Amino acid sequence: MKAITYSQYGPPDVLRVTETTKPSPGPNEVLVRTHATTVTSGDWRVRSLDMPPGFKLIARLMFGLTKPHKDILGGELAGVVESVGPDVGRFKVGDRVFAFSGSALGCYVQFKCFPEDGLIVPMPDNVGFEEAAALSFGGTTALDFFRKANLHEGEAVLINGASGGVGTAAVQIAKHLGATVTGVCSSDNASLVESLGADRVIDYQSEDFAALGQKYDVIMDTVGTAPYSRSAPCLNENGRLLLILGGLPDLLRMPWVAATSTKRIVGGAAAERRDDLETLAQLAEAGWYKPVIDRRYTVDQIVEAHRYVDSGRKRGNVIVLWEGSQPLPHTGH
């Protein structure tokens, strides 16, 4: 089978399409034939080791000190069940599914095994493979951080980086939870963020949200430009700063902030839970959550796909197609 591998950290050119052994499912495993996967900010950071302040050494200890321990990136996919182990009862051959490997990565493959009780669920009938492949990364991150923040109806939320993979998911999910949402993005992406339900959009190129005098119950920073020092004056009493992409200094301040103020910093890795995937499937089926797709690439265009994500211009999600689909022409925004 085909796999996209890399043997050293670096630019997109380190990625290669190679041949490897097709896996066989264990007794309780499901073998999925991949139709689509994604290139997320997580894939970019692990490949390049471009990490927030204080995390580069930690990342090397996690993923490999001098070279990657695991040579296959990719944290999410959608496809069709190819075969099942003898003890599998929840899935059958031909089922359309989407799955999430999260920090374990390994989804840049033509076939992948998942435990039937793992992070794999049926696709909603009204969702295609491309959208299903992009349900998990942004969606689970937004769900988990809003859960940790105890976001509830009527609260005011600001999402910094509202046009990215996590941001576009967060706007939709926050609106579904009944929040009033302000999105921060470029003017080029303002109409997109508004179409997702944002009540207000701030163009970071012409306005600084921290200087406008507005206060919020929750600020979510998906891009790493809203540390506590900048965001704290914009938080209401009992306000929460959600650091999707935060530096180590702010994460180390979490206990002190909690002990000395009514405000709170929420950081760390998002939980990877099966019930969150099921929730996302339900939201997608009901029309509450629709992953934004920016560009589509074939497997053989994987270097180009990563290069585009590296550029920082990605809106929503970048899809990599495995099975018989053709990428759309790439046009400017």
Describe this structure in words.
This protein is of the alpha/beta class and 333 residues long. It folds into 2 domains: 165 residues, Medium-chain alcohol dehydrogenases, catalytic domain (Quinone Oxidoreductase, Chain A, domain 1), CATH 3.90.180.10; 129 residues, Rossmann fold. 27% of the residues lie in helices and 26% in strands. The chain is built from 11 helices and 15 strands. Strands 3, 4, 5, 6, 7, 14 and 15 form a 7-stranded mixed sheet that branches. Helix 4 packs across helix 5. The chain is globular and about 60 Å long. It comes from Pirellulimonas nuda. Its EC number is 1.6.5.5. This is Quinone oxidoreductase 1. InterPro entries: ADH-like_N, Chloroplast_QOR, ER, GroES-like_sf, NAD(P)-bd_dom_sf, Quin_OxRdtase/zeta-crystal_CS.
Give the total of beta strands.
15
Rg, Å, rounded: 20 Å
- What is the fold named in CATH at topology level of the largest domain? Quinone Oxidoreductase, Chain A, domain 1
How many DSSP helices?
11
Please name the CATH architecture of the largest domain: Alpha-Beta Complex
SSE sequence, one letter per element:
EEEHHEEEEHHEHEHEEHEHHEHEHE
Distance between the termini: 35 Å
The H-level CATH homologous superfamily of the largest domain, spelled out, is Medium-chain alcohol dehydrogenases, catalytic domain
Q: Which secondary-structure class do the elements indicate?
A: alpha/beta
Low-confidence segments? none
- Average pLDDT, rounded to a whole number, is 94
General shape: globular
Largest sheet at a glance?
7 strands, mixed
Strand content: 25-35%
Number of domains: 2
CATH class of the largest domain: Alpha Beta
- Residues in helices, as a percent range: 25-40%
